């Protein structure tokens, strides 16, 4: 995860995910920018269009998103 230092992470608005990644980064002494989206389709599109360097979601959601992404 530390290779995402200084990068942007996509995740869902209104969830604890943004807080989790911000607390994790702070505890490891690096910074990330969190970009939140109201709809899952928007966050996947944000990641696919390189607006984000990483995508934070729970396992099954990540698996489903990965199937829909090219490469």
Give a quick rundown of the structure.
By secondary structure, the chain is an alpha/beta fold. The protein has helices at residues 17-27, 40-48, 59-68; strands at residues 8-12, 33-37, 54-55.
Can you tell me about this structure?
The chain has 71 residues and is α/β, with parallel strands linked by helices. Helix content is 42%, strand content 17%. It is built from three helices and three strands. A three-stranded parallel beta sheet has the order 2-1-3, sandwiched between helices. Strand 1 (8-12), helix 1 and strand 2 form a beta-alpha-beta unit. It is globular.
Write the layout of secondary structure elements.
Layout: E1 8-12, H1 17-27, E2 33-37, H2 40-48, E3 54-55, H3 59-68
Parallel strand pairs: 1-2, 1-3
Q: How much helical structure, as a percent, in the residues?
A: 40-55%
Class computed from helices, strands and strand pairing: alpha/beta
* Mean model confidence by pLDDT: 89
Beta strand %: 15-25%
Can you summarize the main beta sheet? Answer: 3 strands, parallel
- Count of alpha/pi helices: 3
Categorize the overall geometry.
globular
Alpha carbon gap, first and last residue: 20 Å
Number of strands: 3
Low-confidence stretches: none
Written as H for each helix and E for each strand, in order along the chain, the element string is: EHEHEH
Q: Give the strand order, joined by hyphens, for the main sheet.
A: 2-1-3
If you compute it from the alpha carbons, what radius of gyration comes out, rounded to the nearest whole angstrom?
Answer: 12 Å
Key terms:
3-stranded parallel sheet; globular
């Amino acid at each position: 995860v530390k290779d995402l230092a200084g990068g942007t992470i996509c995740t869902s608005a209104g969830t604890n995910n943004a807080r989790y990644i911000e607390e994790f980064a702070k505890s490891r002494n690096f910074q990330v920018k969190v970009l939140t989206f109201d709809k899952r389709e928007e966050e996947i599109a944000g990641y696919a269009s390189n607006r984000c360097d990483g995508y934070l979601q729970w396992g099954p959601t990540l698996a489903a998103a990965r199937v829909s992404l090219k490469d």
